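re: ur question from yesterday

yeah so i grabbed the chain u mentioned. its 150 aa long if i counted rite. heres the sequnce exactly as i have it in my notes:
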Amino acid sequence: MGLHDDIRQSKFRNEHQKAILNLMYTSVWVHKRVKKYLKKYNLTITQFNVLRILNGQKVGVSTAFIRERMLTDKADVTRIVERLFSLGLVERETNKQDRRLVNLSITKAGKELIAKADADAAAFDGIIEGMSEEECALLNDLLDKVRNNP
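ran it thru and got these structure tokens back, copy pasting raw so excuse formatting
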């Protein structure tokens, strides 16, 4: 099945229009599957994204630092961090240089949850299981090219 069948559109203005619609449709398709994957860990995509960012840091970081590295909507970082804090997955510490700022870091429970999700990598990677390593590399190159278009 192709995009024609999936969105029930028989004609496209040109291949550029079809590619853009295909990217949009596929983005939603992947989003739904990632959401389903993370549901077993009781995490939303944005919560997972914040934990993934914090897990890669050696020291506590600010919400601005997190916002810069988010894959998804950046507007709700404070609310997301607050929710993760209430779940015991994130901890806060007052910044020693500027007491108005708060440094955030992942807790041991947060690290364990991320480790559990990472251990289930086959299920995550299985979202695009029909593609070879070479095809994934080509797709990555093409998607980078889309985003780097002036």
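noticed a couple things. The helical segments are 3-7, 15-39, 45-55, 63-69, 77-86, 108-119, 121-125, 133-147. also The beta strands are 90-94, 102-106.
anyway ttyl
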